[in-house]
Structure formats: C-alpha cells, structure tokens
Amino acid sequence: MPPRTADGTDGGAGRPSPTLVRVVTARPLERTRPRVPHPAASGRTRAAPAGVVVVLTLVGLAVSACAGPTGATVSVRRPTRTAVAITEAERTAARAATATFHHDIADASAAFVTAVGQLQVDADHGSVAAARTDELAAQADYDVFRSLADGNPVNASTLDEEAADLTPGQSFGGLHAVERDLWASGDAAAAADISGLAAQAPVAQYLVSREQIDPEAIGDIATDELSWVDDVAVPGREELTSHLDDVDIAATVGAAAQAFAAIEPLATDVAPGATGAVADQFALLTRTVTSLGPPDLVTDSSIPPTARRTLSQQVDATASRLALLAAALVPFGTAGPSS
Which of 77, 93, 130, 199 lies 20 to 30 Å from 62, alpha-carbon distance? Predict the structure, then answer.
C-alpha cells in the first residue's frame, strides 16, 4: 500500500560528501550520466518556465505577421502534433527521453530516502559533523526532483519549506528545519524534525515514481530549475543557516544538465545546431561551477562577487538556449508534472 501523505558559516568538521563531489565532477553530456544529486517549497516564488514564454512569443509574432494590408488579423492555427511529420525514430527517441528522465528522478528520490535514513542514524549517535554531511547530501538529492515534488504542495512543504514561508499556526519542518537544528540549535533539537523528515521521504519517492514527463516538459523543467538557481541559490537565499548555497547551485545545475542529456538524442535529430549550442553552454557552466570548489565546503561569503556575477550570466545564457530548444520539442508532447 502506498504511504500516506502527512497533512554558520562553515561546512562542519565532516569530510566532503562523496555525493556532492560527484555533482560537480559529473560530465553532463556523457551518455552514462552519473547520478546527480540535488530544494523550492510551495510557498516560494518561482519564475514561469522560460520555454512557455518563448512559445507564446513566437505564436504572437506569427499572428502579427499574418495581418492583412488593411490591418485585419488573419486567423492563425498553432501547429498540432498531427501537423508535424514525426518519424518512427523520433518517436522512439521521445519515449527514451521520458524513460531516461523517469529513471534519473527515481534514482535521486531513492538516494534521498537513503540519505535521510543515514541522517537519522548519525543524529541518533550524536555525530553532528556526520549529520551535517548527511543533511547536505539529502538536500542535493532533493534538488534533482524538486519540481516534481512541488506538484504536491503539502508534501513539498513538509520536505523543503523555509521558515519565512510559514503561515500562522503552521509548524516548521523538513530539510531547512533540520539545517537550523544542526547549524544553530544543536543536535538535541534535531530528533523530532529528522523523524518527521524520515517519515515524509518515502512519500516523496512514491509520488515521484508516478510521474511520466514528455520531452518538451523535461526541457522546461530544466530551464525553470536554472532560473531558480539564478533567483535563489546564487544570491544565497536557500541555505539561510549553514550558508552553503553552493550545494544547491552545483546539484541543480547538475540536475538541469542531466535533464538535457535525457532529451539530447531527440533534440539532436530535431534541431542539431540549437542542441550543440546548449551542450556547449552546459559544458562551460559546469566548468564554472566546478571551479568554485567542493560544494559542501564553499560558504556563501567565500564566493567573490565577480565569480557570482559570471555564474549568474552563464546560468541565464544556458537557460535561454535551453528554452528555445524545449520549444522545438512541443510536437513530441508537453505533459509536465501532475498537480
């Protein structure tokens, strides 16, 4: 039976998490795609997927271009899937993209459950340094499937909500409550919060396992996650107690690159030039993120303003190119996460 949904400045003394090290050393364009671990709670403001904006803009331009000499607008029908010639090879590639993305998300949600379980063990043994490493690893794993978890606001709020998002009478729990406990309140305060997180982790895993995302939506999800990096993680607005937002930067950029890798074979057939541009941009962005250092040791204050600005510009450039590419995949399905 599926589970029921329930209605600082340093990185600590522990060794860098192997999970987080893999995030920044992963080569996102390799077909083997190592697991890329990697938060946005339902109360957080998120930018609309850029791919949607691009598609609507293109449609608007097409309508304007069809205006007659008297200024009257000629009716324009948006192309449908049946109006586009899709080869059997492309259908196969589209199905493979959906399956690959589903597999990657399933791996991340399983790793999240494991990390939370280890967090509970280490906290029970009073090892604060190890528990901090576990919490960062769990946060990184969660970042991979954040968008899908947001499809169920109740579950998302129990996993990754910020204290500022709470409504009157609502209790604070999830990853950021545990972060507060381990970096500020002390391990004694963490027991109840970790127990609640451990109960919700399998719920998230079950809900994510039900999702089947089409290629265009995969591209939009990755674009949206890059926007989240620029809006939240780069300015240091996510890890408000540990001040280790590079964990979220590395993991979310890695997750976006992994999502792109899932749609890359199909996209190469449909728009090879645009796909190559996105691949080059991700390679550049990944090198920049890696150059910052081990994510769970890089404090927000240690990232120079110039590096932060460069990172933000590269994230924007990658998101813009990816949004255009995602728009080209509309004929292969637009279904995104269920709500």
Answer: 93
d(CA 38, CA 333): 26
Q: How far apart are alpha carbons 336 and 339 in whole angstroms?
A: 9
Judge whether 38 and 296 are in contact, CB under 8 Å. no
Name the token pair of 68.
Answer: 């007659």
Q: Is residue 127 part of a domain?
A: yes
Report the alpha-carbon distance of residue 55 to residue 240 in Å, rounded. Answer: 36
Distance CA 294, CA 300 (A): 13
Instruction: State the pTM of this model.
Output: 0.76
pLDDT digits (tens, 9 = 90+) for 11-52: 444 444 444 444 443 334 333 333 333 333 333 333 444 443
- Tell me, yes or no, whether 7 lies in a domain: no
CB contact at 8 A, 288 and 314: yes
Supply the CATH number for residue 94's domain. 1.20.1420.20
